[in-house]
Write a structure and sequence with these properties.
Length: 112
């Protein structure tokens, strides 16, 4: 988790999502509301491509948050896939939402 936390901060994720993923000018990452879905594949693509490209690839919002800005593409900021998986692991470790929603809610809408 320490390396994921270090990478999370180095990539400036904390600038928008807060130091421990609790939110800031953008959505919290630890509350159980997954805007596009909470599965690993969706999170990986969201961080890599950003929300606008993700939407252009057919993904749609499953939930709402008080989001100020779209998620930027971080694929060129995070050096390797392994680093991105470490960041996702760090985010998962910060999770404080409903247990059944940690990897996306099993019902129709994540976080609803």
């Amino acid at each position: 988790m320490a390396s994921g936390a270090k990478l999370y901060n180095a990539a400036a994720c904390s600038g928008c999502h807060g130091g421990t993923g609790g939110g800031g000018i953008c959505s919290p990452l630890a509350d159980g509301v997954w805007i596009y879905g909470g599965d690993d594949d969706t999170l990986f693509r969201l961080v890599t491509y950003g929300s606008q490209t993700l939407q252009s690839k057919g993904y749609s919002r499953k939930a709402q948050e008080n989001v100020v800005a779209p998620m930027p593409a971080m694929g060129e900021v995070v050096s390797t896939d392994d680093d991105l998986w470490r960041i996702i692991s760090f985010i998962r470790a910060q999770y404080h939402g409903p247990a059944e929603c940690k990897f996306g809610c099993p019902h129709s809408g994540d976080g609803e």
